[in-house]
Amino acid sequence: MPLDRRQFFQASAALGASFALPAPLLAAEKGKERRIDLVSSAFTVALDPSGASRSAVWGFNEQLPGPTLRFRRGERVHLAVKNELPQETAVHWHGLRVPNAMDGVPGVTQHPIATGGRFDYRFELRDSGTFWYHPHQASFEQVPRGLYGALIVEEEKPPSVDRDEVWVLSDMKLDNQRQPVEDFGRILDIANDGRIGNQILVNGLVAGSQRTLTIRSGERLRLRLINAASARFFRLAIDGHEARIIAFDGQGVTPHPLPAGGLALGPGMRVDLIIDCMGSPGQSFPLRDLGRPPATPTVLGALTYSSQPALRSKPLASAVTLAPNRIAEPDLAKASDHYIIFQGGMRGSPVIGLVDGKPSRIQEIMAKQGLAWTMNYNAQHEHALMHEPLLHLRTGEHVMLHMINETDFLHPMHLHGHFFRVLAVDGKPTPHREWRDTVIMGPRQSIDVAFVADNPGEWMYHCHILDHAAGGMMGTIVVE
Could you state, in order of their start, the residue ranges of all structural domains in the chain? Predict the structure, then answer.
């Protein structure tokens, strides 16, 4: 793609929300903006409040995770980000359909925020749901250091619940002194499953039965779960309760129970659960990560019943179905077909990949370039300035995208600026045809998704195992 298009997007970013709004409307709305200041910096926290040690982390507003941002759909926000880190950064609003200039991708939609610098993100919240925010600069390092936070956009008519809780799941790789291991960007992680931490965190604290959510018998709980880990997959199960899934990635789905073998939640993904808590006072039920077989299940936290009298004797009868966001429905009869093939990895076949237009074997790419993955036979460095986009789409085009995984690894694939319907896995129709912005592509598996390309700009499309993204599984899709 010519550099002048990239320069156009970046110039638009410098103008803030004027990229998306006519000047009179911008002037009329500016006074109604809700401003929140976010400062990214280094500090220390006690990951285990019962211990004396403190760990060095990076985060927003000296919180781990960063502050939970709650808004209403249709609200206009001004998120003023200041960088006090020792390296450049930027903030991506994961799952939000924002103007391209506000997407927070250095080298694509904006220049990175220099140390001591700032950037003003302004946009309207088009969609309700469970989202999150994190850097898109050196993400493979900055996210596992602690730079992430939840972003909730309330529905106009939310389901009736007694409590709405957010659990941000993540992990950290710590040494014997409980300090971060400084081994970011290793080719062994890039070319395999990614950098997995040895300490699971729930809302910034060590996971385990002590992470208790105290509830009252008869309560209806909405539990929003966000996987902010850079590479770890969770497989979630809750003992003693029938949890119903009501949303994936912030988008409502026909309510249905958790799968018997646990719910897979890949990096970047979110799920909203409704739990009618009908246990007895004093009982405690763990929420577990079943892990990948033959892993031993890990207790993430627990639902513990207080001694207070029951709030009600039977579950609420009110509906829990979420009103849909306004997303254009793809017309498969007129959709254009596109294919993206994924290859590479440490255990992959000796494929040929292109780096800067030059063909090389994947082993040579790993040794010389620090890359390990190809998309449509190309391996790109993170946010490469002169790469050729994977796809060029027309604004309003109906798109069928076939993803073919020829690797032996899982890849949670994330598309910026759009939601897509997940239609089929290995040619078999999915039971819920759910809207998502991130979908797990299993080893040697194919996934078919469809969407309407109705958000103009150059959009990142990448694996949300952040080491994989840094190692070549990162590209863009242009909507023009």
Answer: 3-154, 163-305, 336-479
